[in-house]
Amino acid sequence: MSLEDYRRKRRVGGTPEPPGEEAASPGGRLFVVHEHHARRLHYDLRLEVEGVLWSWAVPKGPSSSPADKRLAVEVEDHPLGYADFEGTIPEGQYGAGTVAIWDSGRYDNILAEKEEPLTMAEAKAQGRLEVRFHGRRLKGGYALVKMRGPGREKDWLLIKMRD
Ligand code: MN
Q: How many domains does the chain have?
């Protein structure tokens, strides 16, 4: 995990976003969903893993219905300090627009509770994550499932699990 891509895309002093030098949160299982009014409104789902925030842009946002499969496009890891970030990214900067916290809280790695437990990194490498959110809006199990095929390298589906 590295914040190289995150830093490369941003100009120091050009954005109010955090540079990223934080240690892990207590428990190490923070999540946040940002509502990001950029060129196109989308929601950014971020999961704390090993001191950074794994991040996906979810154009339609999470659904509470297991019948919905929501596209979630993997983006660069963000620094942990981003979990608290709200504000306006100036015009001309990467991701220009307003960012607000839509939900946040703790999550569990459901696959760590199985008979053959998987870390988040192992689960991601296998193309399927299962997490249980403890947020105000996001509650219960969600799967993130890697899509296959050419041009799909960053594409995942976010699906509410039947709890
Ligand atoms: Mn975004």
A: 1
